Fold:
Amino acid sequence: MVALQVFTFAAVLEVLLVARGALSSYLPDIIRKMSLSSIIILIFAVNYTTWLIYRLMIYPVFVDPLRSFPGPSSVNGLKLLWFRLTTTVIPAERYVTIAKRFSNDSVIALRGLGKTQLLLTKPDSIAEVLTDHPYDFIKPPVVRKFLGLILGENGQFFAEGERHKFIRKNTRPAFSSRALQDLYPMMWTKALTLTRLLRDEVQQQSTAADSMGTVDICPWATRASLDVIGIAGLGREFNMLKNSDDKLFKAYEYISEPSLEKIVYAFLCSSFSYQMVQRLPFWSLNVTFRENIESIRRIAEDLVREKREAIVGKGDDNFDILSLLIRSDNFSDSELVDQLLTYLVAGHETTSLAFTWACYLLATHPNWQTALREEVRQALSSHLNSSSSVSIQHKDLGSILESLPILHGVVEEALRLYPAAPILLRVAAVDTHLCSRPIPKGTWILIPPWLINRSPEFWGADASDFRPDRWISPGGKRPISNAGTAAGNSGSLTFLRGPRGCIGQNFSRAELRCLIAAMVGQFEWTLAMPEDRVVPSGAVTIKPANGLYVQLKSIGPE
Structure:
């Protein structure tokens, strides 16, 4: 953008000189006869046209330090920008098309009016950024300023270097295998609460002749996941499944609900700055967005204060994430609020979205839905009724759910096909190299889980197909990891990898097992809307743009 500033400064200087008559003798008669306002318009038009020619024709060929990287022309970059600003379809879909054109390259340069960005499409380039030099590539500061309002600017998600290592060390006990096994009964209870409330919803809509009704899965998934992270994250019962008017739920629902206006808003805030966009007049979204952000932060501040008082005054011995951080005595209240925001958002968003998309996939693949139902009801038939007096010891519940091969395959395929964040951004914090080519400090890097997770190179010709059997042993007896991928662990990027990989990925998988198993064990469902209306959309994460309406049919015990 430096060149744009130079051309703008030149235009302003020329206008001042013309206004003072300093250039009158150098201007042709046709221009001298024009009004001052017309001359000003002409000056800016000429300068910006010159800048456009420079950006699209001269800079990419002769000046750009990244000109050695292959990629589409600057004109195609403009098409991509237009695509992002005029449609709710996720940009990752366009990146798939670009990657096919440059299928032999690990790094593809995306050129446009702004800085050239580098799209990573192969395991070697991705490993350099995520595994080999993870702290040389940080989250863009302008993105951090914007998303930090939602995720906590000083939370684990945005922490870098030693600070990130320190936070991860302090939170690791909450995500240990033992801690996870202890959480299974709570997750299962919440899953059964969800199915009981859905059954009530169905009964209100159904006649005596059937037990069918239509529901939108999206808000139910969000409420269930927030209830789980409320207990696991701060030892607090939100009861959002039973209270859809909760202020925290309403605020998150508003912020995450996809719309073209919000996508444009997020693009502007991430490209320029949130503070600059907030100064734009007559945009009501500025007010409502700010109010919801402030509401979430106030609630988080109250939760931190209450938890600290409980630990100090009442000897609260819970082992939720917030309790661990407070007992470490290494975080101020402001830092704890940021950590809490990180876990509230990241802790519920990935799971709620994956559960939503799993319901969609099972609705459109009834054969797998039937097979999964048979597996779940055979293994957990006595535990699917929330009023059952049968108790499941934590060691049994976790091991039962984790041993079910079809359930495992459905969970992994939903996470693979619909990663919560289809595109992740990094920026080079130092002058460095990528695939043996120099890249300057400040270079933006695009890491596309959506592209990698659906790549035929890694997953075969049916990469975009829903195939839970990818994750099941040939005999169909046990779950396996990364089966059928040509790239092993490089085949899926849903949770990233390396030191910055998602610390809560196994937590998310455990919650998904509970939600999906409880759902499929008690309902049959089909789509209650045209399939072409189920469109992945969103500025940061992806959810169905028009909701996910399914027709549920309650099924009784075997």
Q: What stands out?
A: Residues 233 and 335 are 15 Å apart (CA to CA).
